[in-house]
Amino acid sequence: MADVIQLLPEYLANQIAAGEVVQRPASVVKELLENAVDAGASQVQLIIKDAGKQLVQVVDNGAGMSPTDARMSLERHATSKIRSTEDLFRIRTLGFRGEALASIAAVAQLELRTKQREYDTGTLLLVEGSQVMSQQPVACPDGTSIAVKNLFYNVPARRNFLKSNAVEMRHILDEFQHVALANPQTTFSLYQNELEVFNLPAGKLSQRIVALLGNGYKEQLAACEEVTPFITVKGFIGKPESAKKSRGDQFFFVNNRFIRSAYLNHAVLAAYEGLLPRDTHPFYVLFLELDPKTIDINVHPTKTEIKFEDEKTVYAIVRAAVKQSLGIHNMAPSLDFEGDVNFAPIRPLRSSGASHNSFSDEYRPDALSAAAAQAASPSPRERQPDRFAPQDRNLPPRPTDQAKRDLEDFYRSLGQTALPDVEAEATDTLPPSDDELVMVETANPELPLRENQSGPGSKVIQVHQQYVLVPVKSGVMLIDQLAARERILYEQYAQALERESGASQTLLFPRTVTFSPADFAVLREVTDSLHALGFRFTEFGPHTIAVEGIPADVPARDEKELFEGLIEQFRTHAGPVKLDRREQMARALARRVASGAASARLSEVEMNALVDRLFACAVPGYTPDGRKTLVLLELDQLQAFFTR
Predict the structure, then answer these.
(1) Alpha carbon of 294 to those of 226, 227, 289, 306: distances in Å?
(2) Overall pTM > 0.70
(3) Taking every pair of C-alpha atoms in the chain, what is the biggest distance, in angstroms?
(4) How many CB atoms lie within 10 A of CB 385?
């Protein structure tokens, strides 16, 4: 039998390695920025075109390379950062594998210009698909400039897997933020399609945080520091009121390298226990300094995963450091027993039959107000609601006997004897009964039809302000009101996007909303879809928009929170399948608006309307992402619960 094992060609081996190192344009950004920092640059410039698909260029003023080093840097496993096995256990640089440039050059067209300070001229290298096309001397400034053009031009299948420009740009901004936060002593700038997104001068960490993440953090930062012989923890945490629904603004750095660690994130959350609203996440930028021998960063090519030799000690120290910072900055809950509370004295109310001692007593202002309050409010027995009567927030209050008598006296004083029928007027304003609502027929024969008969059996019931119980001919149907609203809104928004004519409600005064540069870059990409949904806004300065209108059925709320939540939903809930941008936007807005009315008390009219609108949907049984909106319990299933 002939020999079948052979060495792979170099270009093919490089493409396989590139699959691990270069997954998207953001991977190129990460590797090039880290190389610039390792080269000792004090100024780093990142230039992006077409979300990195057309161009990723990093220009630095670092040490530069000689002509020989420039050629060697494109070979696999060629590096200046380690020499022996022992060096693997004392790594202080960000890169050390020697795979980045070779992997990038294997799947892109690369142009490298570099010059060392002691030389008069530099070197220009042109590479396509691992092949060096030319190398020649060139006049250029000190440092290195690497331009990566037409990423994945020779691997079209990999290029097809890239997401939309908004998603890819978000990943690029994430990598830029990680490197810029870790190196506040270095000046960074970022240009996207020839527009300046960031210009970050060298300064303190707190200044870098505010410049990167927005002025909203200026008053929310609390310093955090803990020094032990084993580990040093430094950085900033956010006050509890700055917590967000998204997990975005959370950063861990170990020896100045950004890492992701659910274990350490749990340590921070444990320190915030009891201080955060439900389903919110705190902000933090924490730097951990350890002996490189006690950690292993050689776990994955991206080097964002890390192993600790003694992770329990690291967990305890991080948790203690955050908890101490919360206490020092008086953010932990406390009781002040020495403060002057100045409670107002409580005066007893006089009964109507009590005798008055003096004129001043009888007509004292507070006595008058107390008497008026007592006359206006019903007795405790009258205030108790009928626990068996249907509770409806839209029903007008029934007049009390005392109010009727007062009204009769008022009409007598006017010389009228006929008293308007208050009960009849109140009845006239009641909402229509369940029998007056017409059930929308559905084209789906599997969906149950509701009973259309009078009596208590046909009433819809709300359960724990989350579910709606509906009697049907075959049994009982339970509807998740949050999921139902999401399905209804999704179909409504999808139709609006198709017509590109979403109804909009104009605000009385335009309101300005300022975003972080990262969120603003995503907002630019989805502006057309937002306009089609009914949002009306224009750019109004750096990273700021003036909101003039919002979709007609979106409840009035903080516009900044609405936009930030929508951008977060659009970013994180695209799903495993590559969806059309408008489909994503319809899903995101439906989920965002529906969640705003979660656990709401509904009147009978609102419950009936919810059921009717759900059954009018094309796919009433499921949300856009596949969750159930309703569950049907057949009559025999109900009977089975009570049979022995």
Answers:
(1) 18, 17, 11, 11
(2) no
(3) 123
(4) 7
